[in-house]
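Q: I'm teaching a short session on how sequence maps to structure, and I want students to see two examples side by side rather than one. Could you give me a first protein with its sequence written out and its structure tokens following it? Keep the formatting plain so it prints cleanly on a handout.
A: Of course. Example one:
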Amino acid sequence: MSDFSAEMDLAQRAARRAGEAILSFWREAQSFEYKADDKGLVTRADRSAEHAILELLQRDSPHPVVSEESAPRKRPDALCWVVDPLDGTSNFARRLPFFSTTLALVEGAQIHIAVTYDPLRDLLYRARRGGGAFLGDERLVVSGIRDGRAGILFLNHGYGASDRSRFARLTRLLSGVYDIRKLGSTALELCHIAAGSAEAFLCSGDELWDFAAGLLLVSEAGGRVSDWHGRPWDQDTSRLFVSNGRVHEDILDRLRGTDLLSPEEEV
């Protein structure tokens, strides 16, 4: 069985190359366009970072690539790369310094390797399935906090009206106990949970390339990943719940009995 060492090396090189491309645009005033599907913004930095990643992966890896910007969106069942060249485009376009590039090697519902790179701070987070999560040479461990009053909770949403409505109701439901944050980069938020700087993350409507690497980082750092019912994550759900494991049941208990769990609910 492969330990994916070559793929890990390749993912780190690709992430750093994308980071260099992103930073080459950072000092400029950013123009942006709205995506054709009305799902956010796109800048020249997104396209440049994606080109840098695709050029390397397509040259040095046999596995297909699923990327946010231009690569085929349909994910194959076999091993494939799942890539977000610039997670946090809206932040980048407005010069808010919270964005990243993120890659994962995925096979069905299994994530084998993960890399997320914060180019502004030159921080590279990595994880291998069964091999732990790391920031540089430092092994990552989730926080030990159990009391929601000391807990930081990231909330996120997709672009649809129903996702935004769920976000608003989650905020009302949980802000009385947890401190709520939204950094604008799902990938970085999950890195902070893996590093023990925050306790939980809930989203509705994020795409796989936003969170694939982060799921493995948190899991390998000792955290827990589920859907909003507490069931193991599967590749089809976008209602994602990630935590240090210690606040997981408390938040699940708060969700139970609400219509937020209804699969038929649309707003």
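Q: Perfect. Now a second example for contrast.
A: Example two:
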Amino acid sequence: MPDVAVIGATTWGTTLGRLLAGNGIDVSVWARTEAKAEEMRKGQQEDMSKACLSSHLFFTNDIDEALRSAELVILAVPAQTLRQNLKRIKDRLTASMILVNAAKGLEAESGKRMSEVILEEVSSISPERVCILSGPNLSREIDQCLPATSVIAAYDTGVARKVKAQLDTPDFSVFISDDVVGVELCGALKNVIALGAGMFDGLDLGNNAKAVLFTLGWSEVVSLGVALGAKVDTFYGLAGFGDLIATGNSTLSRNHYVGYELGKGRPLDEITASMTNIAEGIDTTIAVHKLVSGLGLDVPIMNLVYGVLSGSLSSSELTARFKEALEIQAKT
């Protein structure tokens, strides 16, 4: 089997590394610092239950070592650092490699999807060899070998099948899509709604209200997705509504956690400072606000989420503004 390099010793990157190693594939996970790489090595040695993976899973801070024999490269860094990481590795990437983006976000400054960023920065890779991995993927559950699924999207479904063949396990089923734009937008935009769901839970607004948030908010997501060239059906599949259900309801979700704490009245800076991982929905919400303004779309639910994140709307004001939005909807 071909070797795989995972760029980013993030929670999700490490989980994907373990999945691949479990399939007998040699995987090198690149960490940003030697201290992080050593921490991951020690953790692997201490976890004797995963001793069977030790001969296939490697952690390194040497980017040349990580990419030396890789035919598949998984980009598992945060969305806002993808561009700078690509600048670091692009001269080591070849036309024969397959690139898989695993980050679920939009670039805050430009509003661009991750595949757009990849193709801007890496001239050696054709669009057909860039894939998107997205779906209802809570890392902790996958690490516990609980059943899960994901979607791999590519313009060339033959390339997607090659990635699927390496990632598929009895507990992790991978589905194929040719809607790169849709799968990518689903993974990013569901985080905006998940932030809102967390806010509703933090405010104790109940499941009835949250169901309305999901329904109206997802309708806005679909409208934005279609305006950007995605297929409607994708938003009601695993990569879309499936991911929303997992992320919008689970306490394992970082985006739900941030929303929940905001609903409780904690300042955003304090919340993010206390976290060891990144909630991609924060920067994606900023990107979405810019996109919908340029497209002239009416997205009251996503605007409420943006209002709380930007500080122009307090969590205590969210309930009243939500009720106002419902009244407007009911009259149309």
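Q: What should students look for in example two?
A: Point them to this: DSSP finds 15 helices and eight strands in the chain. Also worth mentioning: The mean pLDDT is 93.
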